[in-house]
Every structure is written in structure tokens, then in C-alpha cells.
Design brief:
- The chain is an alpha/beta fold.
- It has a domain at 81-105 and 218-401: 3-Layer(aba) Sandwich (Rossmann fold).
- The protein is built from 18 helices and 14 strands.
- Helix 2 crosses helix 9 (217-238), helix 3 packs antiparallel against helix 4 (106-120) and helix 9 crosses helix 10.
């Protein structure tokens, strides 16, 4: 299996090279040159574990690569916490992706990527430096996944003042081989810095660079696994292929769902739930593909005005206009987020975090039955928003409680490439 740039299919590399480099030399994102043909029958895996499904689903993507022999162990390392699908009322279910070490869905992809890169860099002369831009959750998951791993250093770029206090703690409480840089700007500034450094010849000469954002293929591939297991489980339980409602910022998670659908998994539709950043909703409603400046909202991890992974959806669809048929997106306002959190227990028996609340709001707008809400984070990560709305204290997951006791360390920088160079030097 080879991987090509979204901007030039003539440029083809191995899986290991795609994961190691993160971004293609032309600035494009790596995608499979072809999608394998799978015939996933629910009866074939009646009680298969996540690691087993992961190895089965991802084996064709690792075919012929030097990582192929380690795929089983990588899956066991990445999928070592539960990802439960819980049936709710009104032909609706919730897929809980927040039971990992940092209580967010990014733990799956980050741990899988760490397993790949640590194997690829074993015994290297120079460490690999991972650049990760985060709007809240990615950086914490990547920091946790790579902390203490030999041969790898991590530089986390996050927008100063635009993440929750507990999110910031998860970004800054590591030390050792993990550094946190607070960028005086928004997420798009952080993402621009990371992308610019990854393609800058001087940076690439000074450091061995890779990315850990969802622009990295090693983050995206394992996210297909929980869509596979949950869609098969739902179909077995209720006799229908479900649709997924996915809280969407940089669109990596929704892209993984679309890739899983392309493989033949029983996924009826993928609907994008967005916050007040309107790029996706405008495009879905018939507008031009026009990224906008980022708007700050209650769902901070989704504050993205220029979603990078849309390049992959355009490539999957055969262009921008054909992609419009795949993208059904709904904008959810801050007031609607507050309402969903306030009424979540009454309506669903759930307390939502601000991001999952966007999916709950969209569920009330879409017609039909058999929908899965994708719960991307634990509400305790956003206590400043959630607790006043529900009138109670949200119990911390043990891993998050332990992390909050650590000391923090970060450095502020301007959103300029020269400032990043100095901070990394």
C-alpha cells in the first residue's frame, strides 16, 4: 500500500514515510492511493475486541510496510481502554470516546501514532521532534502518549487564553521531552506555524520534524476502528445501519468515519456538528468553500476556521463540488450549547461536555432514526462551562485528577516562524 499527496497523486510514499513526515513536501495531506475492499459482516466479529478489530481493519493499510509486523502490538497499546457504545432513547446511541488517559477522543489516535513513531525511531542518531498545534484536546493527548518515550521530543503549540484551564493543565504539566508554547493568537495561527515549519527547509535541516495533528495519517487510520466496531455493534443490536453525528473542528474525526464508510462498514451517513465557526455549515448550505477567521466559542477544541482535513474529503469525493454531497453540516450556537448541557439529563439522562452538546443539538434537527452521537470529551474537562449549567460538581476521572496535581510550565511566543525557531532552539 502506498500513500499519495492530496495535491499530487504522482508523489507516492510508504506508510512509514507518510507517518514520519506528517505532511507531504507540496503541503498536501497523505491519503491511501486506493481503499481496500472489505466485506465486513457483523456475524464475522460477534464479540471481537478493539485491538482485534483494529488489526483486522488496518492490516491492508500496513501491507508491505516495515511497521506491519508490529501492528498487533501497536493496536494493543493504543486500544487499551474501553470505548463503549450505549443505547439511549429515540433510536439514538452515544459512542463514548473519552475513557482514555486525557479524557478525550484524541487519545486513540495519539497513542497509535506514538506506537508507530517510537518503533520507527528506535536507535536513531537524532531525536524526532513532533510539532503539534492544538485547539484544546490534541496537545494533551499527544503529550501523554509521547511523554517519556525515547528518541522523540514534542513541541505543543496552543492559543493563549483560548483553552479551558484544565485543558491547559494537560498541555503544560509534562516537562522532560514535552514543551508547551502558548501562541499569542488563535488555533489557525498555531496550525499555520506548525505547517510552515514542517515544510520550511531550514527547520527541516535543523530538526527531524513530524506532526501529530490529524493531518498525520497515523492519527487518522486508527480512528476508523471505533467507527467499525460501533457501527457493527449497533447494526447487531437494532438491525439497522446507523448514522453518526460528529462534533467537528479540524474534521479529522469525521474524515475517519467517512473512510470507514468507504471501506464498506454499515455507516448510513456522517453528519458534521459545528460550533459558531461557520465554514462547514456555509459550504454544506451551498456556499463556496471559503475558510473564515476562527471564532472563539464554548466548544473550544472545535474553534477552527480553516479545517485542514477537508483536503482529504475533497480527495475522497473527487473534488470540491462532489464533496458537497458528503458534507451535511449544522451550526450550533453558544446559546444552543448551553441549552443542551442544561437539559441533557432530562432529555437523554446525560451530562454533555460543550462539544458533544453540539451533536446532541444536531440530533434534534435531523429526521429519522438510528443515530449515534459521538461523545468526544468528558464534561469534567470543561467544568467552568458545565457545572454552573447543571448545578452540580462533575466528578473527575482518576487520570485527570492525578494530572491536575502536576506543576505546569509553558512559554509564550508571537505567532511568527522566527519566534518558534527561537523557542525550539
Amino acid at each position: 500500500m502506498r500513500y499519495v499527496s492530496t495535491r499530487n497523486r504522482d508523489y507516492a510514499v510508504s506508510l512509514s514515510d507518510a507517518i514520519s513526515h506528517g505532511l507531504a513536501p507540496d503541503g498536501g495531506l497523505y491519503v491511501p492511493e486506493r481503499f481496500p475492499s472489505l466485506d465486513p459482516e457483523p456475524s464475522a466479529m460477534p464479540h471481537a475486541s478493539l485491538p482485534a478489530v483494529g488489526e483486522w481493519l488496518l492490516r491492508p493499510f500496513f501491507e508491505g510496510d516495515r511497521l506491519a509486523n508490529g501492528l498487533g502490538d501497536i493496536c494493543k497499546e493504543a486500544f487499551n481502554f474501553p470505548v463503549p457504545l450505549r443505547l439511549l432513547r429515540d433510536d439514538t446511541a452515544v459512542l463514548e470516546l473519552f475513557h482514555g488517559p486525557t479524557a478525550a477522543f484524541k487519545d486513540v489516535g495519539a497513542r497509535f501514532l506514538a506506537g508507530c513513531l517510537s518503533r520507527l525511531n528506535a536507535g536513531a542518531d537524532r531525536p524526532l521532534t513532533i510539532l503539534v498545534a492544538t485547539s484544546g484536546d490534541t496537545g494533551g493527548a499527544v503529550a501523554a502518549a509521547f511523554h517519556g518515550r525515547p528518541g522523540v521530543e514534542v513541541v505543543v503549540l496552543y492559543p493563549k487564553g483560548r483553552v479551558s484551564p484544565r485543558q491547559e493543565k494537560q498541555l503544560t504539566a509534562w516537562g522532560d521531552n514535552v514543551r508547551a508554547l502558548a501562541v499569542r493568537g488563535d488555533f489557525d495561527d498555531c496550525q499555520r506555524l506548525a505547517k510552515s515549519a514542517l515544510t520550511d527547509p531550514q527547520f527541516r535541516t535543523r530538526w527531524r520534524l513530524s506532526s501529530a495533528n490529524s493531518i498525520n495519517l497515523g492519527r487518522l487510520l486508527p480512528q476508523m476502528v471505533y467507527y467499525a466496531t460501533s457501527s457493527l455493534e449497533y447494526q447487531r443490536a437494532r438491525g439497522a445501519a446507523p448514522g453518526f453525528i460528529v462534533p467537528s473542528g479540524n474534521v479529522g474525526n469525521a474524515t475517519a468515519a467517512l473512510w470507514a464508510q468507504r471501506l464498506g462498514l454499515p455507516i448510513r451517513e456522517v453528519v458534521f456538528a459545528t460550533n459558531e465557526n461557520r465554514t462547514l455549515a456555509e459550504f454544506s448550505a451551498g456556499g463556496e468553500w471559503t475558510p473564515h477567521p476562527t471564532v472563539e466559542t464554548l466548544a473550544t477544541a472545535m474553534d477552527v476556521g480553516n479545517p485542514s482535513n477537508m483536503e482529504r474529503i475533497f480527495a475522497l469525493s473527487g473534488g470540491i463540488e462532489p464533496a458537497r454531497e458528503r458534507v451535511r453540516a449544522f451550526l450550533v450556537t453558544n446559546d444552543e450549547i448551553r441549552e443542551e448541557i442544561q437539559t441533557g439529563r432530562e432529555r437523554w439522562g446525560e451530562i454533555w461536555d460543550p462539544h458533544t452538546a453540539t451533536a446532541a443539538a444536531v440530533r434534534r434537527r435531523v429526521d429519522g432514526s438510528h443515530w449515534i452521537l459521538v461523545a468526544t470529551a468528558h464534561p469534567a474537562k470543561f467544568e467552568a462551562v458545565v457545572e454552573p449549567l447543571v448545578g452540580e460538581t462533575i466528578e473527575l476521572p482518576p487520570s485527570l485528577a492525578e494530572l491536575l496535581q502536576r506543576p505546569s510550565s509553558s512559554r509564550e511566543i508571537e505567532p511568527e516562524l522566527s519566534a518558534l525557531w527561537e523557542a525550539m532552539g
